[in-house]
Design goal:
- The complex is a heterodimer of chains A (120) and B (112).
- With 120 residues, chain A is mainly β.
- Chain A has no helices and eleven strands.
- In chain A, strands 2, 4, 5, 6, 9, 10 and 11 form a seven-stranded mixed beta sheet that branches.
- Chain B is an all-beta fold and 112 residues long.
- In chain B, a hairpin with a 6-residue loop joins β4 and β5.
- The chains are: A mainly beta (120), B mainly beta (112).
- At the A-B interface, β5 and β10 of A face β4, β5 and β10 of B.
Chain lengths: 120, 112
Amino acid sequence: EVQLVESGGGLVQPGRSLKLSCAASGFTFSNYYMAWVRQAPKKGLEWVATISTNGNRTYSPDSVKGRFTISRDNAKSSLYLQMNSLKSEDTATYYCARLEYTTDSYFDYWGQGVMVTVSS
Amino acid sequence: DVVLTQTPVSLSVTLGDQASICCRSSQSLEYSDGNTYLEWYLQKAGQSPQLLIYEVSNRFSGVPDRFIGSGSGTDFTLKISRVEPEDLGIYYCFQATHDPRTFGGGTKLELK
């Protein structure tokens, strides 16, 4: 059974940093692109970042580029999101998601999400 | 960036009715490989999103055949025939053809 379990969320002050983790199990982690998607309270979904199987290619929208870094450790079947210079608008539930194997175009499995609150 | 506009924003239905949700893109979603990377997700209350439809019309594993995706280019539709209680929630379209990848604003399906 595919499982994705996020951790590392919490309350953080504006301008500070936070690192999220996602522990994967039930599949060969190193074979899949992985991603982070977020959802601000009572708002819609926003794609945050994608990483290739070996980690040498990453993609993210301008809203987080330069502040957020996605990375992975295939030996530990873990995905990470380093978030720097946090802003109040980064307050959201962050989901770890697996991208489909052949085209990496859709999220076929999602974690339960972890809440990040940016506030003084 | 590609903007996906979903209509309606909310939809009230009676169980057993058909529901139809539209997703219009600001650009064609046909990729250079000939595929169209338009997906549909459902987020039930208090849960993570779940994949329903990929590449316009392909149902994901375990998704009932009452969910039907269609469309091409810039206009797409998700139809749910015979709405059941477990179908209630917020539906999102998503495009993976252009970077950055974007979601529609969502359509809330609720009971009348």
